Amino acid sequence: MTHTTTDEGTALLLEPSALPARTRLLKTLLRSRELSVAIVLLIVVAAAAIKSPDFVVSSDGWRDLLLTPTILLLLAAGQTVVIITRNVDLSVGSILGLSAWLTGELFMAHPGLPPVLAFVIGSAAGAGLGLINGVVVAYGKVPALVITLGTQYIFRGIVLTWAGSSLISASQMPDRFLKLGTAQIFTIPVLFIIAMVIVVAVGYYLQTARSGRELYAVGSDPEAAVLYGLPVNRRVVGAFILSGALAGLAGVVFAARYGTVNSSAGTGIEFQAVAAAVVGGVAIFGGSGTAWGAAIGAGLLMTINSALPMVGISDFWQQALVGALIIAAIVLDRVLAARQARKLIEARDES
Amino acid sequence: GKADTGTSSDGESGGSGDKPLSIVFLPKNLGNPYFDASDAGGKKAVEALGGTFSEVGPQTASPDAQVQYINTAAQQHASAIVLSANDPKAVGSALTQAKSSGTKIVTFDSDTEAQYRDLFVNQASPEGIAKAQVDGLAEQIGDSGEIAILSASANATNQNAWIDLMKKDLQADHPDIKLVDTVYGNDDDQTSFDKTAALLKNHPNLKGIISPTTVGIAAAARYLSTSKSKGKVALTGLGTPNQMRKFVEDGTVTEFYLWNPTDLGTLAAYAAAALANGEITGKEGDKFTAGDLGDYTVGADNTVLLGDPTGFNKDNIGDFDF
Amino acid sequence: MSERTYPSYTHPLWRRLLIGREAGVIALLVIIWLYGYSNIPYFGDTLTLTYILVDMTTVLLIALPMTLVIVTGEIDLSVASVVGLSSAVLGLLVQHGVGMPLACLTALVTGVICGVVNGFLVAYVGLPSLAVTIGTLALYRGIAVGLLGTTAVTDFPANWTELTSRVLGSSGIPTFMMVFVVLAAIFIALLHFSPFGRGIYDIGLSPEAAEFTGVNVQRTKMILFVLTGTLSALAGIFYTLRFGSARGDNATGLELQVIAAVLLGGVSIFGGRGKLPGVIAGVLLIGALSSALRLEGVTVNVINIIIGLLLVLSVLSTSLLAWVSDIRGSRARRHRVQRPTPTPSSVSSQ
Amino acid sequence: MDSPPQAALQLAGVSKNFGPVAALRSGSLTVQPGSIHALVGENGAGKSTLVKIVAGVHRRDGGDFFLDGQAVDFGSTAESKAAGIAVIYQEPTLFPDLSVTENIFMGRQILGRMRRIDKATMYREAGKLFQGLGVHIDPRRPALGLSIADQQIIEIAKAISLDAKVLIMDEPTAALSGVEVERLFTVARRLRDEGRALVFISHRFDEVFDLCDAVTVMRDGSYIGTRPIAETTVTEMVNLMVGREVADLFPKQDTDIGDVVLKVEGLQSAGVFHDVSFTVRRGEIVGLAGLVGAGRSEIARAVFGVDRYDSGTVSMSGTAVPARNPRAAIRSGMAFIPEDRRKQGLVTDASVAENIAGVIRRGLAKGGLLTKAQENRAVAPWAARLEVKTSSLDAPAKTMSGGNQQKVVIAKWLATKPDLLIIDEPTRGIDVGTKSEVHRLLSELAGQGLAILMISSELPEVLGMADRVLVVSEGRLTADLTREQATPETVMHAATASSGSQEMAR
Ligand SMILES: Nc1ncnc2c1ncn2[C@@H]1O[C@H](COP(=O)(O)OP(=O)(O)OP(=O)(O)O)[C@@H](O)[C@H]1O
Ligand SMILES: Nc1ncnc2c1ncn2[C@@H]1O[C@H](COP(=O)(O)OP(=O)(O)OP(=O)(O)O)[C@@H](O)[C@H]1O
Ligand SMILES: [Mg+2]
Ligand SMILES: [Mg+2]
Fold first, then answer.
1. D48 burial via Cβ count (<10 Å: 0-12, 13-18, 19+)
2. How far apart are CA C65 and CA C74, in angstroms?
3. Is B277 an 8 Å CB contact of chain C?
4. ipTM, 2 dp
5. Would you say the pTM of this structure is higher than 0.90?
6. How far is the C-alpha of D188 from the C-alpha of D477, rounded, in Å?
7. Three-state DSSP class for A192?
8. Do A81 and A209 meet the contact criterion of CB atoms below 8 Å apart?
9. C191: pLDDT confidence band, cut at 50, 70 and 90?
């Protein structure tokens, strides 16, 4: 409020915000899309817990509450990075399947393999498949939806050929590795900790690294990004590599958590990953959204699945509710966006 | 009905022996160790008879995917299809067409409606299967308390038949046992695993689970073995020894049941060959020999019965490898 | 003013026909058919033709309106769930003793309602169709599974289920294809020979310009989503009768098959480009290829790999061709750069 | 080479083809450090193409390109940026989802600890940049929702912050108001005085003479000549550009003015315009003048039914036209040529024929069926009447120059045989040659009894063409002037009339 009246008259737009930094941060947080999804998630958990306290309180309940969404958490974070660049990766389910099978094969061939190495190899394999997607999409100048639909078929075909009709069961993998599937630190499952660390890191990277911000720029307006001199192709390839690596990691987590792998691991999970991102506030046409939001979205989708029966809704109606939730989320986004646009225009009017 | 396909004319090879024997095994889905075992038995039998064996099948246990494989086998004029049906009715018209082009139809493991096939090779009588599991679990939990069923898909013919029989058995013989929930793992490992977790969470007083499907019982056992409920919640059902060995040894599971799937495959293959050669027609009273398994007679409803299920526990599980 | 005249076309007819992606797909279809006919045992049987057509009928039916939707730049991922839902409705009604005609009609109306919901959210609320139909994909399937629960309804009258397998004389062509041919003719006229169809392309190429030209963008999109819902329901009825079984999980995953076929047929996922004959050829190509490969004893995994590769390569082909001509062009350019160029001073002296 | 060795930027005989289109045949340009160099030419002369070659967007097919005497060849915009070239493109290129600060610093954000982006410092820097430009923009607001003028200002801030040796501005003023243009010029002169080389592209000669030191003229993709600004005149420049004498820029014919065609009463849309009432009669050209951002386009769009409005009525020849329904407006006899030709006026990927037939095709169909042949037959006379330059009717509109595209849009609407033509910025971004053709055409159409509502930001155009001038300021009609009353002074006074602070600012 230091401007003179005449100065304000010339203002074209919003005055630079005079709010102190902390207030602004709080306001941003309160208005954020992530918070609203998180609140819904808490409500769901609370409702289930009231009906059946075991859902949260018992040690198994607590463990499963955190473990069940772990795989989708990883996939949703990876999917977010790709969607932000105005692409989509429909091949993550097949990448997950390949990596899970690879993990099983690795342990069958080398029972002494340190589990850490399995995680590294799984992620690297996923990254390699992501690289293929990325290169074809970026340099072939072809839509990601089509290409990853194609590679979804191809990668799944490879798992099927490799695995045939066989199955790798718990007894064929070392206990050291399978223990990771349920191991807990301070009651929090190790796999969940790994996933959370990665989701937080990805989200932080997107917000604070140059290349991370460039991903948003690429998705916000790809043509402008080219004119701007941004390395658009490199960024798109990078996004697909990251998504592939996370799907690969999710495959290893799958093997550790379920202890059994066959050729159909991860079938159909790609839609859930996209849905989690959308529910978590990631715009399907790129340019906005956070990995954190997507992770909360993943948590919500998976938790709803296990919580519904507790509040007395039959198994059979779960999917319908998930669908309604997705639609509610995008309608909410639209309402919020319209409100923001109106504010920006009003601000211009007032100036 | 007169399903006029315009093809019945070129496929009337009937039971003539001039065509080489080719038998197509079509399990519910690939990647299922139970069918691996049965198809292995089938393969050995077909090769012993000097025929060609092939195994085809969909990735997921859905009837529409099975139809395409039935069609292909019919196009190739295979001598016989040995099928475990994903739906008693949905594969019907495809089977009818295949039959009309001269292919014999044998179902095993999971039957279709009787008019669609020539013969059903039954693993064990449904009454026997249901009773073995219910009585087994009742013994383990002291004949009272809450139990639940973890089944395959909601439409699986045999599972649904067994579940109905189990309910009758429970009512008649075990009045203190209460069946509180039936959930479906769709014969998918991950789904079955998550459903087990949900079952335990939703029913804190649960004392036992029956899973009449090999995929389901293995997933449930794996979940139980890592959970606090291990040893407290009894688990039984139908499983293969190789998948369940670990859980029997570590005490998660006391006893489970199954017939020998390899024998089932072998019997189905011999039955199919006998039909294809015109040795039998599938009517009640027909007799044929199934290699080492011995002689079998076709019973009512064009059905051949393999035998009673075996119980596997700590004492005998070491003797089996499938 | 001198009255100028303009040629209508830059290229002669044969060139215009040959350059499209449609031509490539149709050629590939013919090649596979000829190869199969002469080299694969049983492929030439009329029975094979029957099976390919019956197998692909659901995809063919849904691909018609889906093409129009994709040409406007939208997408409908909920089609397979609409198949499932209409199948569930049909089954439920028949189970409760409702007559077939009324049950089928109700199933169709279910599809219309599904389409209206999609269309309303996309066209009038303005939400992205990719997100909306991922939502309704789950929603409609969920309702279908919720309605039927564990049951599969199988007691359909035989004279109705037979309709799906009856063939025309000895041609091997299923009688039901007549319905498809009529529908295909209507859709081709609609997309390629009507003002409405031109509007569909305009919307796909530039929605804003279409709006300014008086194309009713919202209503057009609404109509297309309703058509997609309706034909998906029709496909659902066909599917149910063909298998004689109504189940909540009928046709799961079919949406990807339909979209793959449409894209293979030369339709651009960005909208504004693509033709129905190409799409129909794309669907038949997948059907013929799968059938041929199955007859050759190729397993489902390899078939998947081949269909995936075909999809990727067909989409890449445009880019690859441009790339090749670019390389040729830059080679020629290198020659040109050598030539001496006039200096500014020499030009400015004019 | 007889040019001075220190030329900051030198292009000689540069050529570029897009498939069959020769966009640039032999482009040449020499810019000295510490000078502002104008680049002028008709639409499609190849100016933007030349700029894009310098920027590394396109690779040249032939010719020489020197920067500070060094031969260079840019494969990407990143390379040209690194070499010290900043470009403001003809179309603003902003990322709508990102804050204006991020838009300015994208790709070279200020890094803090551990190579993390230091947002606080960036906001401060952006604030300083805006201060230097004399504008008040919240550095945190997203670029979404900025008006075109505001977007252009962000582009300018971006280019300035690059600290480039060479700054190229491709029609930066097309969407700016007088004050903003002045501000931009102050900054440009300061940069020149710092010793940088600037290239300025504009169709407005007054600006060229006001700002620049030298001017290079292009025609048909070729270099025509370079003149120091002090030694040339508008007439010479126009002659060089067009290659012929251009007689009268605004040949308005007198016409008989007839009955009321369009009647707008009390039109209102919250936050955009208020209480707008006016009429347009047969044979009359009504000019809608005002500052950029005054809301003229919005009024026109609401009248035509593309935008909604809260209250008020629109009627054509006495019959009410329903709101929010362009189809109904077209049926009532309206035609609307929007200001953004490439996004709104044309489906650029569609062919010339499809574009011209865009509105009338419903009437062409026989029994619901429409063929290409019917379309071609119907559009050919209209293309001929407007002398559209195209090789064939199935050529995509995107391959044409701006002026020709505008002719296609006009043809499309004339084909509907309208009673009222609303035309928003009829000659924006159109060269002098085509411009006078468009003016002659509008005047001729009015002579034939068409009612015309013309929105224009160019005062000479409004004063020269209009029978009556309506002035809009801040969404309100502030004056209704006859041809005689309308002078630059009366119009500008009305345009800045409404609120006191506004008048002081502009
Ligand atoms: N990407 C492209 N593909 C095909 N033709 C093009 C392309 N870009 C430009 N052209 C053509 O090249 C010619 C020169 O265009 P350019 O944009 O350089 O003109 P300009 O002088 O900037 O005109 P204006 O004043 O209208 O901006 C035009 O005929 C145009 O149609
Ligand atoms: N990109 C935009 N997004 C939202 N609203 C806008 C946008 N551009 C303009 N507006 C709104 O419309 C009003 C007038 O805009 P505009 O600049 O188009 O006016 P105009 O008088 O038609 O000027 P001109 O036609 O000369 O550009 C603005 O004050 C603003 O409220
Ligand atoms: Mg230009
Ligand atoms: Mg305007």
1. buried
2. 12
3. no
4. 0.80
5. no
6. 35
7. helix
8. no
9. very high
CA–CA separation, C324 and C315 (whole Å): 15
Q: What are phi and psi of C104, to 5 degrees?
A: -65, -40
CB-nearest to B36 from A166, A181, A310 is: A166
Rounded distance between C-alpha atoms, residue D339 and residue D425, angstroms: 6
What is the 3-class SS of A98-135, one letter each residue?
Answer: HHHHHHHHHHHHCCCCCHHHHHHHHHHHHHHHHHHHHH
- Count CB pairs under 8 A between chains C and D: 142
Residue D10: strand pairing partners: D30, D66
Q: Return the residue of B nearest to A312 by Cα.
A: B202
Q: φ, ψ for residue C156 (rounded to 5)?
A: -95, 145
* DSSP, res B121: E
How far CA B275 is from CA of B95, B278, B287, B290, C137, in Å, comes to: 15, 5, 11, 12, 45
Radius of gyration of chain B measured on its C-alpha atoms:
20
What is the per-residue pLDDT for A4? 34
Q: Are B151 and B216 in contact (CB under 8 A)?
A: yes
Alpha helices for chain A (secondary structure H)? 5-10, 21-31, 33-51, 59-67, 70-84, 92-109, 115-140, 144-163, 175-180, 190-208, 210-220, 222-228, 232-258, 269-279, 291-307, 318-350
Do residues B299 and B288 make contact, with C-beta atoms less than 8 angstroms apart? no
Average pLDDT on C218-227 reads 97
Phi-psi region of D201 (alpha: psi -120 to 50; beta: other; left: phi over 0): beta
Residue D276 identity:
V
Report which ligand 1 atom has the smallest distance to the Cα of D45.
Answer: 21
Residues 6+ apart with CB under 8 A from C34: none
Q: Does residue C5 belong to the interface with chain D, where contact is any CB pair within 8 Å?
A: yes
Q: Among the CATH numbers 1.10.10, 3.30.70, 1.10.3470, 1.10.760, which is that of C24-320?
A: 1.10.3470
Rounded to the nearest 10°, the torsion over CA C201, C202, C203, C209 is 170
The residues whose Cβ lies within 5 A of ligand 3, an ion, are: D 48, 90
* Ligand 2: residue whose CA is nearest its atom 16: D293
Ligand 1: does its nearest atom lie under 6 Å from the Cβ of D30? no
- Please check whether residue C123 touches A, CB under 8 A: no
Name the helix (H) or strand (E) containing D334.
Answer: strand D334-337
Taking the mean position of all CA atoms in its chain, how far away is CA D69? 34
Count how many pairs of residues, chain A against chain C, have C-beta atoms within 8 Å.
151
What's the pLDDT tens digit per position in B43-71?
999 998 888 998 888 877 777 788 888 98
CB C230 within 8 A of CB C108: yes
Q: Which of D151, D150, D168, D160 is nearest to D88 (CA)?
A: D168
The answer to whether the CB of B101 falls within 8 A of the CB of C48 is: no
Partners of A223 in beta bridges: none
Lowest mean per-residue pLDDT among B60-74, C282-296, C315-329, D93-107:
C315-329
Which chains would you list as touching B if contact means 3+ CB atom pairs under 8 Å? A, C
pLDDT the model gives residue A218? 93
For chain C, the structural domain boundaries read 24-320
* C-alpha distance from A22 to closest chain D C-alpha (Å): 13
Q: What does the block give as tokens for B282?
A: 């599938």
d(CA C127, CA A338): 12
Whether the CB-CB separation of A133 and A193 falls below 8 Å is answered with: no
Compute the distance between CA of residue D147 and CA of residue D175 in angstroms, rounded to an integer.
9
| pLDDT score recorded for residue C13 | 74
